[in-house]
Amino acid sequence: MPDVLAPLLAALRDVKVPTTLRSSVIALLGTLVEAVPLELAAQGHSAELASAMLDLLALEIVTRKPAVRPRERDGSDSDDEAPVEPAATSTDTKLPQLRRGAMLLLALLVRGTRHQIEAQLEQRASAEDDAANGGGRLAGLRLPGGGALPALDGGRARSVVQPTPLLFPARLVEQAHTVAQFAASRDIDPLLQHQANDLREECELLRVAHASL
């Protein structure tokens, strides 16, 4: 896993890499989260991704449109105006696709964590039901001469549910909620505002899930 993550994270953090390519890197990281969530969580990589996305959004949220350089009175461009950089090679970190990718990856991590907790709660409830109903209990077997073997209770072993490493650390939930709330109300990109509202709702659902543990 480190062999795959290291170059992706290096490209993501390199401000000289075109923004479109950095956005594609975030999409690849999302694919990794979906493919090997437990491995990422167990090794702490998912927490590293979450922190990186929160830092990116905190730095790159755009609250107002960039100023447009005034043109000459006759309508032509001024002679010293810099040429427009193509979007595909632009390193402008304020392009919306970078923020959108970060917001989507955060939502994926938060939603995945909620599903992990819900699965744990279901397993716990099932194990408790088994234990209460004597699930897997083998009654003592009668032996010739009136003796009996002791009962074997398989329900006890199944009542212990091992916690699963979570994708999104509980310590970052409030920060993610704050960033999402700010982006939803202040960023100029309508799509990002919608994504931020989704993330905010996911954080609130994750709070409830954590409270149930």
Question: Could you write a compact summary of the structure shown?
Answer:
The protein is mainly α and 213 residues long.
Describe the model.
By secondary structure, this protein is an all-alpha fold. It has one domain (2-63, 92-132, 160-212). Helices cover 61% and strands 2% of the residues. It contains eight helices and two strands; from the N terminus they run αααααββααα. It has helices at residues 2-13, 19-35, 37-42, 45-60, 96-132, 155-158, 173-186, 190-212, and strands spanning 137-138, 152-153. A two-stranded antiparallel sheet has the order 1-2. The longest helix is centred in the middle third of the chain and has 37 residues, at 96-132.
- Measured by DSSP, the beta-strand proportion falls in under 5%
Please tally the helical runs, counting DSSP H or I stretches of 4 or more residues: 8
Look at the structure and give the mean pLDDT: 84
Bin the helical content: 55-70%
Q: How many separate structural domains?
A: 1
Task: Find the structural class using helix and strand composition.
Answer: mainly alpha
Terminal Cα span: 29 Å
Layout of secondary structure:
Layout: H1 2-13, H2 19-35, H3 37-42, H4 45-60, H5 96-132, E1 137-138, E2 152-153, H6 155-158, H7 173-186, H8 190-212
Antiparallel strand pairs: 1-2
